[in-house]
Structures are given as C-alpha cells and as structure tokens.
Write a structure and sequence with these properties.
alpha+beta, five-stranded antiparallel β-sheet, 5 strands, 43% helix, 28% strand
C-alpha cells in the first residue's frame, strides 16, 4: 500500500492536477486517494463520485472488450473545465488510476505520459 501512496503523491506533481485515486472497478471502491492542496473547489465527495462513475464506465467497456479480446488501456473524458484520465492497471486485474486535472492549467499529453509511467511502476512492484 505504501507504493500506492507514493504513486498518488507523485501524481500530484503533475501540472494542473486536482486529485488522484487508485480504485477497484469491479466493486466501484476507492482504495486510496489524494487531493492537491490547490484543489479548493474539488472535494473528497466529488472524487468518490468520480471513482464510482468511472468504475461503471470501465465495467461496461470491459464487457465489450472481452468479446473482441482487447484490453482497455486508458479512457479520457474532456469537459469544459476538467480532464479525467482513467488508466487501467492491466497487470493487476480490476484496478485503475483516476487523475483529475484542471483543463486550463494542465498539459494533457504530459499528464498521460506521467500517469502511464506511474501505473507501470506500480504494476511492476505488484509483480515482485
């Protein structure tokens, strides 16, 4: 669990991040999360709601993916003010990372690369 907390802490260094979570999409349960100190307008309740709704999206996509034999790597939602990046941890069945970013302060490409790097480090640690 310490690796997860370190990964969440590392994800808070991404420009424009409001919060990050590590969750189980099978149960819709948040396992760990951290909010940025700059996230004054973003709450724990909003993070929990995003985890639950993201879990639903992943479950639906996973059902579709099973039929085609493909695995979900990433899902991105772009709203007027926010980016939501969902990174599925394929090496650890049922788990995902959720990153919430302010659109006007974040670089989506950089955030995607950094989150992929953080997720792969956690997956490697989980295998060892």
């Amino acid at each position: 669990m310490q690796n997860i907390q370190n990964a969440l802490g590392e994800s808070l260094s991404i420009d424009g991040v409001l919060g990050a979570a590590f969750a189980d999409w099978r149960r819709g349960e948040c396992l760990a999360y951290q909010l940025s100190t700059d996230a004054s307008g973003f709450s724990q309740a909003e993070m929990m709601l995003l985890v639950a709704s993201s879990s639903e999206v992943i479950r639906n996509k996973a059902t579709q993916s099973e039929k085609s034999g493909e695995k979900i790597a990433e899902i991105i939602f772009v709203y007027k003010e926010f980016f939501y990046i969902i990174r599925v941890a394929n090496a650890i069945t049922g788990l995902f990372f959720l990153l919430v970013l302010e659109q006007d302060k974040a670089n989506l490409a950089h955030a995607r690369l950094k989150l992929a790097q953080i997720a792969s480090e956690i997956e490697l640690a989980g295998k060892n």
